[in-house]
Write a structure and sequence with these properties.
Structural class: mainly alpha
Distance between the termini: 47 Å
Order of helices and strands: HHHHHHEEHH
Number of strands: 2
Number of helices: 8
Radius of gyration: 19 Å
Helix content: over 70%
């Protein structure tokens, strides 16, 4: 019990340090983009969640996937800011799969999709092939270089694994990959909300998205 509590205390302290370092190294433009994107996703989601009379199976399926995506989006951001990059990359991979499934439901009969793995390459073509390969490589520890995401440099200049996260400049790269997928999702979310919420006035949100 004492060892577990001590680990959690140390982990919380180091993550707070890493988060401070991330925010210090983040440019004002990058910060503005990050906060605006998070806010836009939240604003659109609030206009989507509600009661629907006689919803179709397809709609409910997409709605639940979308809500799962949104919840994971904020978790990923926190992981990135706290230095848990492998965990973040793994969830970004799942986000790309969720986004793929949302688009598949738009274009294919639901009965064909049930029980099938989302086919990322078929939906997003060449762009996703590169990104999905990178995300999978991290998620599966496909190459030894993935270890760099959890390593730290010792006082004698050597690298070693760490139980606790440390700040890395690559955290900004990780965030940008998450934002790349999230922008595709946000575009889909706005269109989906326009379709299913007749009271949704989308102009302001669409303008914000265009700026992003």
């Amino acid at each position: 019990m004492e060892a577990a509590l001590l680990y959690q205390e140390q982990a919380d302290k180091t993550r707070a340090i890493v988060k401070k370092a991330f925010e210090t190294n983040e440019t004002e433009v990058h910060y503005s983009f990050r906060i605006t994107l998070d806010g836009l996703i939240n604003l659109v989601a609030k206009k989507l969640v509600g009661k629907y009379e006689e919803p179709t199976k397809e709609f409910l399926y997409q709605l639940n996937i979308a809500i799962s995506y949104i919840r994971s989006h904020y978790i990923i951001n926190e992981l990135i800011l706290s230095g848990d990059l492998i965990e973040a990359y793994t969830l970004i991979r799942k986000q790309l799969e969720k986004l793929t499934r949302l688009h598949e439901i738009d274009s294919l009969p639901l009965k064909i999709l049930i029980g099938q793995t989302p086919k990322v390459n078929n939906v997003f073509k060449e762009v996703a092939k590169v990104l999905y390969r990178e995300l999978s490589e991290v998620a599966h520890f496909g190459k030894p270089k993935v270890s760099q995401l959890i390593s730290f440099r010792t006082s004698d200049g050597k690298n070693g694994p760490s139980l606790f996260p440390t700040y890395k400049e690559s955290a900004l790269i990780c965030y940008d990959k998450n934002a790349f997928v999230a922008l595709y999702f946000t575009h889909w979310l706005i269109e989906f909300t326009i379709k299913h919420n007749k009271e949704y006035e989308s102009e302001e949100d669409e303008n914000t998205f265009s700026i992003l």
